[in-house]
Design a protein that fits this description.
- There is one protein chain.
- Helix content is 51%, strand content 20%.
- By secondary structure, the protein is α/β, with parallel strands linked by helices.
- It has one domain: Metalloproteases ("zincins"), catalytic domain (Collagenase (Catalytic Domain)), CATH 3.40.390.30.
- It has a four-stranded mixed β-sheet with strand order 1-2-4-3, sandwiched between helices.
- Helix 1 packs across helix 6 (132-152) and helix 5 crosses helix 6.
- The two termini are 18 Å apart.
Length: 153
């Protein structure tokens, strides 16, 4: 199972997605049904819907970059530990994803938003994109997940 706790910190999000919790959990349900690894465990994570100001503060505090960004991910577990945990535990908290409304392109908003939260989710599972081979692997998973969401919604 893939369960998303949604925290709306900026009400401007409601202009684009009226009920963000319903929207996201409907899409996560599709992933649950189509992605084998989501069927064995109960994965929980939070998505915070925020703005440039908050992401700039967090980016500065945790990454020492004094600028805003589109998304930040805060995994609760390191990838090695998470792999072991998945084999032992049924319920696993993955971490938090924070998305900046001001950086989501308004044209094709849903597609851009889906790309961001999927990207953040993959970071919570330990995927990175600093090396080319890791980038390609992560990008392939993102595309597959987005295709699933867009096909079955």
């Amino acid at each position: 199972m893939l369960k998303i706790n949604v925290i709306v910190k900026n009400n401007d999000w409601k202009k684009y997605i009226k009920n963000s919790e319903f929207y996201l959990n409907k899409r996560s349900l599709i992933l649950q049904k189509k992605v084998k690894s989501f069927k064995k465990n109960n994965f929980n994570f939070s998505i915070v819907l925020s703005n440039s100001y908050e992401l700039k503060k967090l980016n500065n505090k945790f990454r020492k970059k004094n600028k805003s960004t589109d998304i930040l991910s805060f995994p609760f577990h390191e990838k090695k530990f998470l792999s072991k945990l998945i084999k032992k535990e049924k319920n696993i908290y993955l971490g938090d994803v924070i998305i900046n409304l001001n950086k989501v392109k308004k044209k094709n908003f849903e597609l851009e938003f889906n790309k961001l939260w999927i990207h953040g989710l993959l970071h919570l599972f330990g995927y990175q994109h600093q090396k080319d081979k890791d980038y390609l692997k992560m990008q392939k998973l993102e595309k597959n997940f987005i295709k699933l969401i867009n096909t079955y919604v």
